[in-house]
Prior knowledge:
By secondary structure, the protein is mainly alpha-helical. Helix content is 69%, strand content 10%. The mean pLDDT is 79.
Amino acid sequence: MKDEKQRVALVSIFAAVLITGMKLIVGVLTGSLGILSEALHSGLDLVATAVTYFAVRMADKPADKHHTYGHGKVENLSALFETLLLVITSFWIIYEAIQRLLGAEFEIEVTFWSFLVMIVSIVVDWLRSRALLKVAKKHNSQALEADALHFSTDIWSSAVVIVGLVGSLIGYPGADAIAALAVALIVLWVCFKMGKKSIDVLLDKAPVEETKAIAEALDQIPGVLHWHDLKVRQSGADVLVEVNIHIDPAYSIGEAHQLSHEVEQQIVLACPRAFVHVHQEPHSTNVKQ
Length: 289
């Protein structure tokens, strides 16, 4: 699992280096402001991808005496960082688009190489966003999910540059500014949802779906007469669970331990990658069901 996450992040870094270099070379040779702007955007992506790679490596480190719950939240912090980079990029795109629509002078030079580098960029970004999203879903990695989002938005920004190139060819150079505004607003909405998700995890907000699944599993376990104080929080791809269960007072220590073990197993079945702590209490008839 660890190797797969790190491998897909490392491949993404190499792809970012390739795309950034191609855009920079073609942008300088053609003098295209749009492609040079995309080179800057891709350079930002390279920084974000490198941060993701190191975050994934750090998050997979085992727990130690200084980080007893592991290092999983490094992934959530990385995802928040990438979201902020996307927000900054989106506002920059909006600013540039408005300036152009208000009459700022700009020049888009249309060449064969201009179209080629943007098409190659779209293909590479589509391939790596799919690969990243597949691994992110498989391992519940928020850092890789944010990376996949980042590159999927790059597809749209590259498409906007192509629209601008085509618009210049047919006499409407402002077409790319209008398309850029639409894309930037969509990206900001996605950033809001992604950022909220990262902040919720960093603030230990209980995940709704996982909490519901665990509660339903607890209700079905024979021997658990009552349960309360269920606490669920996420740390990267892991889910940390604490719960108090009430058991028959006549149970021996061995029987109580066996029941706790079964509770842990059922919770893990309901919520993979859960780390569970169960506290047992003798059941009393005074407890409200």
